[in-house]
Inverse folding.
């Protein structure tokens, strides 16, 4: 598939503060070629810039989630080109908004990266997590080993990467690669929208700040250091209008009981 192929697109649907981004490259089972990666970057940037969006869901055009990178392009790639291939899932990874992957089919190679780039992964009945780098004779890229070890630990990453273990939805849920597994794609998308909607219902600046804090504290070794960071941010929200309004609403609700 060449750059600019009209069959490759990222569709965006915003409902109740949740932007659902559907990666669609049906001729290649949603493989991330250069064109599609750039379209995903644009879609993520648009969602980040939209004050009406409070959370992002990423999914694939059925029946796949993402079949990896475009192998023809990869055979000709240099480091600069590879970074352009990575750009789509790296845009997801760097989004300040909560991000959720609704994995509705095979996630292979770069498709694993796309799923791992999200804060939370949900798995549908046909979800399949297949790293496949070793089988292709290809070194992992895009920060895969960093993301995988944080999601799976050393043993899980080795099992999937070096030993080629492929996980279905229930196995992914069991090992913690997926937060939850669903019995139908309809339930998967309903669950994704409901979960993302909870994040979108929070004050946008609060959820952005909290995600940023989580990124910082995940790198710290001492509880005391995390407390020092959080106390400043929490002190600001104590005096916020959103906190005052929500406390008043809660008190009113309690008083009626």
């Amino acid at each position: 598939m060449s750059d600019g192929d009209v069959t490759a697109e990222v569709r965006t649907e915003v409902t109740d503060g949740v932007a659902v981004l559907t990666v669609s490259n049906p001729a290649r089972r949603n493989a991330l070629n250069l064109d599609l990666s750039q379209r995903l970057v644009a879609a993520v940037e648009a969602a980040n810039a939209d004050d009406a969006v409070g959370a992002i869901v990423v999914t694939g055009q059925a029946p796949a989630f993402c079949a990896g990178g475009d192998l023809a392009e990869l055979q000709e790639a240099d480091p600069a080109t590879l970074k352009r291939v990575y750009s789509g899932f790296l845009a997801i990874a760097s989004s300040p908004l909560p991000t959720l992957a609704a994995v509705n089919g095979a996630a292979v190679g770069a498709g694993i990266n796309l799923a791992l780039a999200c804060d939370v992964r949900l798995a549908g009945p046909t979800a399949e997590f297949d790293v496949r780098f070793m089988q292709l004779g290809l070194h992992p890229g895009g920060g895969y080993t960093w993301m995988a070890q944080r999601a799976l630990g050393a043993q899980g990453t080795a099992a999937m990467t070096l030993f080629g273990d492929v996980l279905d939805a229930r196995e992914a849920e069991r090992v913690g690669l997926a937060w939850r597994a669903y019995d139908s794609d309809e339930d998967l998308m309903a669950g994704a929208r409901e979960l993302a909607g909870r994040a979108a219902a929070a004050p946008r600046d609060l959820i952005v700040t909290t995600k940023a804090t989580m990124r910082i504290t995940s790198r710290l070794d001492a509880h005391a250091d995390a407390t020092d960071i959080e106390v400043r941010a929490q002190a600001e929200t104590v005096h916020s209008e959103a906190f005052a309004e929500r406390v008043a609403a809660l008190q009113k609700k309690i008083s009626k009981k």
